[in-house]
Design brief:
Length: 248
């Protein structure tokens, strides 16, 4: 395998994870068993073909709920797109948008007044967006995408806060599983034609939870968040190096 083809990180994992981003659909029983023993690779979508594969999953998962969604395959300097694949199939993706003076964040379209409050306080904002996990996929895939985006945003570039727009039905999930807090209330999201709630997460808090629980998985002692399914902290230097090198 060439340097360019090596993933950011790979892992084997059992278990499945219900679709959290789009809705409450049923898992295909055949897929549930098939993915139990699969090896997953997390890569950066740094080519048009990879961005198109990620966009196909977005359209599939958002379209299932009837949401409008921009294909969004264009590359932008303030965005990175991560995707998870197994056996050549893309099964998870997310895009991380870094705030800057020229383009801002997607959430500015609906919550600019709220985000400007944080900017005036000197906070550096980034927004996980276009998150989609296929049905029947391990919860570790979701945790891996979020953890790698945290390393890129906080450890490498010094951003301080995640802000996200989520459907009201998913607010409890993001609060309970990652520690997000209410910030901007509920408004109509013009990009997908559905209601959205603005949430905020201090990345120092995320870092503390990773140090406390990362890598514990089922040995988490009753912790109900997703942090036990993040990578252990000793994996972070290698992930950081590969992200700095721009590897996939």
């Amino acid at each position: 395998m060439s340097f360019e083809d090596e993933p950011i990180i790979s892992f084997d994992t059992p278990g499945t994870f219900n679709d959290l981003v789009v809705g409450e659909g049923q898992i295909d029983p055949a897929m549930e068993h098939e993915l139990d023993l699969q090896r997953f690779h997390i890569r950066m979508a740094n080519s048009r073909g990879r961005r198109e594969a990620a966009s196909l999953l977005i359209r599939k998962m958002y379209g299932w709920r009837g949401y409008a969604v921009d294909p969004g395959i264009a590359h932008a300097l303030n965005k990175i797109t991560l995707f998870a694949e197994t056996a050549g199939t893309t099964v998870g993706t997310m895009t991380l948008c870094l705030d800057n003076d020229e383009t801002g964040l997607p959430a500015d379209e609906n919550f600019r007044d709220k985000l400007d409050i944080l900017r005036e306080e000197g906070r550096r904002l980034c927004e996980p967006s276009r998150l989609a996990i296929d049905k029947g996929v391990s919860k570790r895939v979701f945790a891996a995408l979020i953890h790698i985006s945290y390393i890129y945003a906080h450890n490498i570039h010094g951003f301080t806060d995640y802000v996200i727009e989520v459907n009201p039905r998913h607010v409890v999930f993001y609060k309970r599983m990652l520690g997000f807090q209410d910030f901007g209330g509920e408004r109509e999201c013009t990009r997908v034609g559905a209601p959205a709630v603005l949430l905020r997460l201090d990345l120092d808090y995320m870092g503390a939870q990773i140090r406390k629980y990362g890598g514990l998985m089922e040995q988490h002692g009753g912790e109900r968040s997703f942090y036990p399914f993040f990578f252990p902290t000793w994996d972070e230097p290698g992930i950081t190096d590969r992200l700095r090198q721009g590897r996939n």
